[in-house]
Amino acid sequence: MYLGMMGNLVVFKILICVFKLRSQEMVDEHKLTKGNRNFNVLLLWMPAMCDMIGMSTMYIALNLTYASSFQMLRGSVMIFTAILSFPCFRRIPNFRELFGIFLVIVGLIIVGLSDWKDQEEKKKEEQVSKGHGNVAIIGDIMVVASQFLTASESVLEERFLLAKDIPPLQAVGWEGIFGFSTLIVLMIAFNFIYVGEPYASNPGNTLENPIDALVQIGNNWRILVATIVAIISIPIYYFCALSVGAELSATTRQVLDSMRTVIVWIVSCTALDQEFHYLQLIGFLVLLTGMAFYNDVGCSVLRNKCCPSKGQAENQEEQR
């Protein structure tokens, strides 16, 4: 992942050289390179660490819970982003936004209940080994906890990109360098930390096994292709995410990111043989409704049609 993010810095430097051959004005005006290119790069170390710890926690949780639940529970990042946006940007949520946050919390609880119900059914069918019966719930809790760090990363990036006017490509590249260098050091230590099942499934049952990972990539072309696709797609994703955060807001970025849940859920139920649970569908719909309320997706139009006078007054107040 961080290798792909580092590629953004290479692309940024290439664009600088190409634009300079044409004119210095193009470098300063093009949307990919304009902004403050001379800043203290250590400012990006903190969001990079938030991303690294948050993503590591999420990947451990992904081994414990279902991919669809993993994606749905990532929607909790909206709650933490809204909370952290108050001290950083003095954004006070209104009633509509608070109601949206409430619906998101209800949706998260419903999704968690669906996993709990599934684990109870598997216990009755004796499909879950002794001592591992609640791993899905543990994974769900870890996913929600990791979203606090993800929200911190988004808010910090938005703050730095706005205050320092840092080009998104350059920011992603430096975060990749910090994350890659830190993770390389940590992986050496993780290779000797025994955790056992179900938290690890590599030959040594250690927290990380980079040598085994490289062997698997070399022995299986499907894993190799997936790795290459990830390296290419990740820098594109991070650039788009940072651009949305800089142009709109960190909350909007996280909501758009949560929309891929639909694709993951469909694949999990069709290709990965995950059983369909109606509670997950209800929870997902409640989550989407909460996100729609929070981001005013269609709410203003509906309000103006139902209560034209009240809607017009509220719109004028928001413009002020």
Automatic annotation (TrEMBL):
It is found in: Membrane. One of its GO terms (cellular component) is membrane. It comes from the Eukaryota. Pfam families: UAA. Keywords: Membrane, Transmembrane, Transmembrane helix, Transport. It is a multi-pass membrane protein. The chain crosses the membrane at residues 39-61, 73-92, 98-116, 176-195, 223-246, 276-295. InterPro entries: EmrE-like (IPR037185), SCL35B1-4/HUT1 (IPR013657). Belongs to the nucleotide-sugar transporter family. SLC35B subfamily. This is Solute carrier family 35 member F6. The lineage of its organism: Eukaryota, Metazoa, Ecdysozoa, Arthropoda, Hexapoda.
